[in-house]
Each structure stands twice: as C-alpha cells, then as structure tokens.
Design brief:
eight-stranded antiparallel sheet; mainly beta; 1 helix; Pnp Oxidase, Chain A
C-alpha cells in the first residue's frame, strides 16, 4: 500500500550530471525555484467587448537558487568563475531528488542545461556568529518532474 501522507521538504539530494561537476553530490541547505509558468498572449476579438482571449504561448521557468554553507569546494568556485570572469558558459544537467524518511527517492526533477547566472556570499559581520552562506542562482532551459 502506498503512503498517502504529504512529503517533507527537508531531505533531498542535488547531483550535478555533467561537465567539470560530473557526479558531484554537493549538499545544499535549500533549493528554490522549481517553478514553471505559462505565458499568455491577449487576443481581442472585434465586436466582442465583454472579454478577451488569453492564449498560451510558451513556458517560463524561474531561476533555480541553491544555498549552502560556504566551503572550499573548488569545483563549484571554478565553474562559477569561468562563467562570470571569462564568459565560458558550460551548462550541466542537475538531478534534484526528494527523499522520504528512509532516504528513498520520492520524486526526481531533472534540470536541463543549467549554468550560473549569479553567485554570491552572505555578508560578513563580526557581531554575529552566523555561518557564511553561498548562494548559487542558476539559469536553465527546463525541468522534468519524475515520480518514482
């Protein structure tokens, strides 16, 4: 019998599937931006003044934002630096896997042709004992959700 309880969102994996980050499983504290929206084109029909038609045109995907504690992971730093400093854009595929309490996959999202759009580090403040957070914002073509 399948479990019908809602999934928790705190147990997940992010795996890079290509390029210089091949097979890199890097721990992230949060993943946001798995979102798609249909863009619409408005069409007004002559003589019809009560409404206008909204026709779907294409899909728009939100940027994927990955956050984690700053470490010396030279693969990610090199990938971001090559993109930002040299405009050497090397897209990679990602696989985001939501896990259940037994660490078994519940749902998988394949993110296609992702590349760093923005890389930032949280503010440094000597008055706070907070972890330095690295934020990686990725542009990508599309994602495919896959139930397991």
């Amino acid at each position: 019998m399948k479990n019908t309880y809602p999934s928790v969102g705190f147990s997940f994996n992010v795996e890079f599937l290509g390029g210089t980050l091949q097979s890199a499983k890097i721990g992230f504290q949060s993943v946001t931006g798995l979102s798609v929206e249909m863009q619409l084109e408005s069409l007004k029909e002559g003589g019809e003044n009560r409404f206008e038609y909204n026709l779907p045109t294409r899909k728009k995907y939100s940027p994927l934002v990955l956050k984690r504690g700053l470490t010396q992971n030279t693969k990610i730093i090199k990938w971001c630096s090559e993109t930002m400093l040299n405009f050497d854009i090397q897209p990679v595929n990602l696989q985001i896997t939501l896990l259940n309490a037994s660490q078994k996959p519940l749902m998988i999202w394949d993110v296609i042709n992702a590349w760093p759009k923005k890389w930032s580090v949280s503010d440094f403040d000597a008055e706070k004992s907070a972890i330095a957070i690295e934020t990686l914002e990725l542009n990508y073509q599309y994602f495919e959700p896959k139930p397991v």
